[in-house]
Amino acid sequence: MKMLVKILVYIFLFELCESFIFPRDIKNFFDAYKSPSISIETYNKLNTNEVSSFITNERYKNLPNNLYSEMVGMINKDFLYREKNSFSKLPFTILIASKDNKIIGVITIESSEIDINGKKENQPVISNLIVSSEMRRKGIAKILTIRAEKIAKKLEYTYVYLFVDIENKPALKLYKSRGYKSFGDTKKTTKIVCVNSRFGNSDCINVMMRKKI
To answer: According to CATH, what is the number of the domain 37-212?
Structure first.
């Protein structure tokens, strides 16, 4: 409360005198909440190792070298498969957030065939939304989803879809805050986990969500 009162007083003084300089504690307060200077762009390199490495580092911490290389290779193969099998209206697209020439966030969007009320439809699906651990809670995930949604909207789609593990509470909270709502039935599937220095499949339940754009 004291800090809020100080801010209001100093803003009033700033309005009276343009040469007024904010004290260091007030300046530090604003700097702490200032959005980082980042750029969002389409990743257009033929080799996706850079993105796959970023995802591996964020999803699986401290992997031994052999498992690290294995996971990077699996993600690269997945990207290649999705690039070949996405539909031409909205091909597989990787968006990256970068700061100081370093990747700090990733999201992918593509037109995929999904089951909607028992009918197969080609719809835009976002996935692989990941922000580096040190850059979270700075609005980067929001910026990436907005940019992906704009791509789908420009192509005159009505909805954007996604699938998320029902146990991933932070992700569910994020998507709900962005206007996504659960849609359709949950689906049993598997996810890759690392147990005892080996990769394996673990059962999980995904919920489909969508947002009107």
So the answer is: 3.40.630.30
- What is the Cα–Cα distance from 78 to 183, expressed in whole angstroms? 26
Q: How far apart are CA 202 and CA 114, in angstroms?
A: 22
Q: Residue length, the chain?
A: 213
- The percentage of the chain sitting over the pLDDT mark of 90, rounded to a whole number, equals 65
Strand partners, 189: 204
Model confidence, pTM = 0.79
Spatial CA neighbour of 175 closest among 124, 213, 141, 138: 141
Q: Which of 145, 147, 146 is nearest to 171 (CA)?
A: 145
> Could you tell me which of 169, 147, 172 has the C-alpha nearest to residue 160?
147
Strands 181-182 and 93-99, by their bridges, are unpaired
pLDDT at 124: 96
In this prediction, residues 113-135 reach a mean pLDDT of 93
pLDDT band at 23 (very low <50, low <70, confident <90, very high): low
The domain segmentation of the chain, as residue ranges, is 37-212
Which residues, 6 or more positions from 106, have their beta carbon under 8 angstroms from its beta carbon? 51, 54, 55, 94, 95, 96, 97, 128, 129, 130, 144
